[in-house]
Write the structure tokens for this entry.
Amino acid sequence: MYQYLLTGTVLLICSVTDLKSRKVYKAVAGAYILLAFLGRVAGNNIAPGELAAGLLPGAFCFLISWISRQSLGYGDSALVTGCGLSIGLWPCMTTLFTAFFLSGLWAVGLLVLRRAGREKELPFVPFLLIGAVICGCGYTG
């Protein structure tokens, strides 16, 4: 439960800063990754392979960030890395796919309503927060 609270708190803080300034602060993302790692290791309920698997969504997002020249920012990718470490591979994947889906729906809505063009940048962290909340609602551990 601690990991879901940590994830929700960090994503809420980062959502506010992402909405206001379009930034994810490296210090916050780095502290999140460290706390997520320490929390999982201290809990003694995770195998090293499972911990490493939690890094895969973040690595995928960093690859997208690099290929797209930060259309998905490195700060967003760092938060996904922390999410994978914190809640594990499959809950993180559910969170990430939900965030991609919802941000896509939002973007299509903006285009249809002519509120934005194709070059409009959207903050991604709020969608990540919504995905984490949806994923956390199914928490059974």
